[in-house]
Amino acid sequence: MGTVMAEMNVKTFSHTVVGLALIVVMGLVGVKATAQTAEGEGILGLFVPVGTISDGSSAYAEQLRAYRLVNMLMRLGLPAFWIAEPFEYEDDMLPRGSFWVPAPDGTPSVAALAQELADRLGVPYTIVYARRFASGEPRISAFRLRPVSVAVYQGDRTYSGAADIASSLELVGVYPRYVTDIEIRRGALDDYDILVMPGGAQDVQSYALGPAGKANIRSFVESGGGYLGICAGAYLASAPQFELNLVDAPSQGRGVIGTWIAVRQRPGSHPLFRGYDDMISDLYYGGGPNFVSDHRAIAVLEGVPQSWKPGLQGLAAVIEDTCGSGCAALVESSSRHCCSRMHIRPGVIAR
Asked: Which of the residue ranges 33-37, 79-83, 312-316 has the most confident prediction, judged by mean pLDDT?
């Protein structure tokens, strides 16, 4: 029978964000996993490969199904890992960014359940046996995931943003709950891992939350929660006049609402963009903030329309920063118009 041994080597990817082609909120605990087998084939588990995709390709839908599968398996209580480094198995190189669902102690029934669900969802996978590794004893560098509990703010002037985000999450097996400003003031965020603040009108959101609501959001994040701010939600978290003060990153300029933009990933391939091209184009700009491109930038503006004022090229469109024990991810694009291209990856904030 196979035995999977994991030695914890905590290295938190202070998770977060969104990509404009996706909404992703992942919190990761680093795990260096050594898999050993005593006898027989030793089923290690299921690998769900997630390769590089291009906008509009059928691989995008395949990725969504893969995320749905992993979220389903975690809800059933099965462990799941995100592969940090590629490794060789038989004649294949399994890519980083893929998922590993191990079979505890080589239990065939666990692998069979994961395989059945993958078949039903049409998700490709590889069954991994310990004795078939080309390099001998398998060593897998991975990050353990856990299910995420997501709250989506719904209030006056959030328009369709909250519903768009919720429907995008449901596509991949994450079922968020709406929270109102009244519920936030009453402490409802204690039941969640992540708060998503959608686009809309940041001044209205700020007024509705009031000092007590904003204090509760700040306490939630500082205590280890995640904040995902999109468009107005990004302004709310960063502009000093709104007094939420999660991130010290005031907007460096605003583009022309209703235009289409492109962003480029910063060098280093942030985990949240894994599997996507370096350049992500045809994103609708809804009026969100553009930030200074410092160490917190995940993606920067590339190919700004001529109608925009000079100086915005190269500013940060997506940033992440820590806030106490938690973190905030801020995205400039409007959720109302890029919703069909957003999804949440499995896992998160496992500290």
From this structure: 312-316
What is the rounded distance in angstroms from the CA atom of residue 57 to the CA atom of residue 53?
A: 7
pLDDT bucket at 262, cuts 50 / 70 / 90: confident
Residues 6+ apart with CB under 8 A from 289: 234, 235, 238, 239, 250, 251, 252, 254, 330, 332
Tokens at residue 247, please?
């991130």
196 vs 333, residue with greater confidence: 196
pLDDT at 40: 37
The radius of gyration computed from the CA coordinates of the chain, to the nearest angstrom, equals 21
User: Is 261 found in the same domain as 302?
Assistant: yes
Asked if 48 contacts 101 with a C-beta cutoff of 8 angstroms, the reply is yes
Domain end position, chosen among 121, 145, 169: 145
* Per-residue pLDDT, 13: 23
* CB neighbour class for 166 (10 Å; exposed up to 12, middle 13-18, buried from 19): buried
Looking at the structure, do residues 246 and 274 belong to the same domain, yes or no?
yes
- 305 falls within a domain: yes
Instruction: Tell whether 218 and 302 lie within a shared domain.
Output: yes
